[in-house]
Amino acid sequence: MVSAADLFSLKGNTAIVTGGTSGIGRCVANYLASAGAGVAIVARHGDAARQAAEEVAAEYGVKTVGIGCDVTDEASVTAMVDTVSGAIGIADVLFNNAGINIPETALDVSYADWKRILDVNLNGAFLTARTFARKLISEKKPGSVINVASISASIIVQPQSQAAYNASKAAVVHLTKSLAIEWVKYGIRVNVVSPGYVWTEMNQIVDKKITEVWMRSTPFGRFATPDEMAGGVLYFASKASSYATGSELLIDGGITCL
Ligand SMILES: NC(=O)c1ccc[n+]([C@@H]2O[C@H](COP(=O)([O-])OP(=O)(O)OC[C@H]3O[C@@H](n4cnc5c(N)ncnc54)[C@H](O)[C@@H]3O)[C@@H](O)[C@H]2O)c1
Fold first, then answer.
1. pTM exceeds 0.70, yes or no
2. Which of 13, 94, 229, 238 could disulfide-pair with 37, CB 3.0 to 4.6 Å?
3. Average pLDDT over residues 124-128
């Protein structure tokens, strides 16, 4: 038996965090570093990514790198994975967290917005996971992908309409299971965390009348903090989940029970 600290330790691991300069990604980057992993902070804006990477290195004393990358751009994702390898080592943990929402009804959403949401949330997650996995497979190394879906993969949250987001996140859950099965022979595990309502910038700008409806429908009656997502990510990133692949972990204050 190993100690609980060893079970969750990421010493010797290198983690990529997409969407790593804000919200859940920025918070989880701290926890990955605090568990001992080197951390690559990836965001659309390189300056913000480098700034966040410097903060994590100063706070936790691990190797970090900040990289500008648009997850919908294949060349950008390929360059990002290569840069991580050269700067802090081959990444064996991917927190595939970048995502957007543009709540609009199915009847009104422009086709451009529909495609943009699918492009970031589904295509970006796929491209990043595949590029990460190809690198690991070429190096014959095991690894762990942690995708980010949502309660919106399982239920239709109210009162806003957001068919594109809901469809993209449901697809991320099924993509997770598909990749888990394809990559099991390479020792690459693929799992997904599905948060409920989390108090991040994404939600801090939402009308109070809407967030009140959300809180009335959440058994816990409050938002999660970004920190409350970290335990699930550490579980999937570490040896603690060595037998888990294709799993979805809902961290949602009970809302999907209803
Ligand atoms: N906050 C919630 O209540 C909640 C609930 C369920 C799921 N989620 C999911 O959690 C993840 C993180 O969300 P958050 O709440 O921290 O919001 P956030 O807006 O703070 O984080 C999303 C990050 O993704 C980045 N991003 C967007 N498009 C990108 C692109 N093309 N390339 C690279 N990076 C890009 C953004 O810059 C941002 O840093 C998202 O996938 C979101 O859908 C959030």
1. yes
2. 13
3. 99
